[in-house]
Amino acid sequence: MSYDAAVFDLDGTLLDTLGDLAGSANYALTARGFPARTVDEVRRFVGNGVAMLLHRAVPDGTAPEDEARCLELFRAHYLAHMRDHTAPYAGIPELLDHLRQTGIAVAVVSNKFDAAVKDLCRDYFGDAVPVAIGESAQIRRKPAPDTVFAALRELDVPPERAVYIGDSDVDIDTARNAGMDCISVSWGFRDIPFLQAHGASRIARDPKELGSFLLAP
């Protein structure tokens, strides 16, 4: 079916942020005397917000105050370095422009902290993403549907006329909890077998195929 709105995850869906996430995580870890993590380890840790990323990255048994300090260090470092290696996936800017031209409203909903989500969407996508919502203390993060519903209210589109798009099991669960259709993408932080094992029903292999899903009659 065709849709009036497309709500996207950010990391691993629109932007390849893995290098900067790993860089900031390892800055925080080594600053506190903890061992660094590989990029593949960080890939597995992302998806449930920055606090969970750091919780998974610190050694087992780390004191809560040390974990909290790592989180503070990560946030400060990431805000200063989140554009060092980050870039849109090939074909994504063209897809977003095409959606805008065809009248499909676009929003981004992410478990990354809100300031970073808004800054990255503004810097990389400009007017193509008019609504961007990240994690904050005022609203439950994904897989709760709250941030998706908030974005749809801003777009003035009901959930049944929208689709949620992401690269992880968290995104599949978010769409299910929101009562929305879901399209998974295979170019992000989780592979196709993982997505299928977690209930993915439609998987786009590249942005061109994603566009064909979104614009199908």
Describe this protein with a few key phrases.
single chain, alpha/beta, six-stranded parallel beta sheet, two-stranded antiparallel sheet, 10 helices
Detailed description of the structure:
This protein is α/β, with parallel strands linked by helices. The mean pLDDT is 96. The chain starts with a strand and ends with a helix. Helix 6 links the parallel strand 4 and strand 5. The longest helix has 18 residues. 47% of the residues lie in helices and 16% in strands.
Summarize the model shown.
The chain has 217 residues and is α/β, with parallel strands linked by helices.
- Helix fraction bin: 40-55%
Round the mean pLDDT to the nearest integer and report it. 96
Tell me the fraction of residues in β-strands, as a range. 15-25%
Oligomer state equals single chain
**How many E-type strands?**
8
The general outline is globular
Structural class: alpha/beta
Number of helices: 10
Biggest pleated sheet: 6 strands, parallel
Show unreliable segments. none
SSE blueprint:
Elements (H helix, E strand, L loop, with lengths): L4 E4 L6 E2 L1 H14 L7 H7 L4 H8 L6 H18 L5 E2 L3 H10 L3 E9 H12 L5 E5 L10 H10 L6 E5 L2 H10 L2 E5 L6 H6 L5 E2 L2 H8 L3
Parallel strand pairs: 1-4, 1-6, 4-5, 6-7, 7-8
Antiparallel strand pairs: 2-3
Helix pairs in contact: 1-4, 3-4, 5-10
